[in-house]
Amino acid sequence: MTALEFGYAINNMTKSMKPFALRLTKDMEQANDLIQETVLKAFSNREKFSEGTNLKAWLFTIMKNTFITNYQRMVRRKTFIDTTENLHFINSTENIAQNSAYGSFAMADIVSQISKLDDVYKEPFMMHYRGFKYHEIAEKLEIPIGTVKNRIHIARKELKDALKIYA
């Protein structure tokens, strides 16, 4: 395949490459840049393409690999490596002391609200919280699985309403 024929074949594929590029980048300008970079790589490596194979698949593979390489490069660029020996300066502007009182109050309120639930709702809810599956709860309580799901849903809803100050 001559360079002119190869260029023409790639040009015909660029429209079908756009949706894939958009799916990868989620941005129109970045998608166009990715397509342009893909076409450039494909054209500069045209001798590696085996005639008679799927050109579209070859181009999509180049595009995916280019996207992954660019993403990894961007992540590396954003990584900060501290080379100082005085490590006590790291995060020195942030508060280090944490107060667990807020969490204690929230947990006390949650336990209080759970204890106020009707036993009909509390028992399946607590079993589900402890890791039981719906069908296991249904067997243990000898009620239909739909009833189990409904009761857990109602318990969650009541707790959400009662604890909305923590939302």
From TrEMBL:
Entry superkingdom: Bacteria
CDD domains attached to this UniProt entry: Sigma70_r4
Gene Ontology MF: a single term: sigma factor activity
UniProt domain RNA polymerase sigma factor 70 region 4 type: residue ranges: 110-159
GO biological process: DNA-templated transcription initiation
Residue ranges constituting the RNA polymerase sigma-70 region domain according to the UniProt record: 20-73
Similarity comment text for this entry: Belongs to the sigma-70 factor family. ECF subfamily.
Name the record gives this protein: RNA polymerase, sigma-24 subunit, ECF subfamily
One Pfam family matching this protein: Sigma70_r2
Keywords associated with the record: Sigma factor, Transcription, Transcription regulation
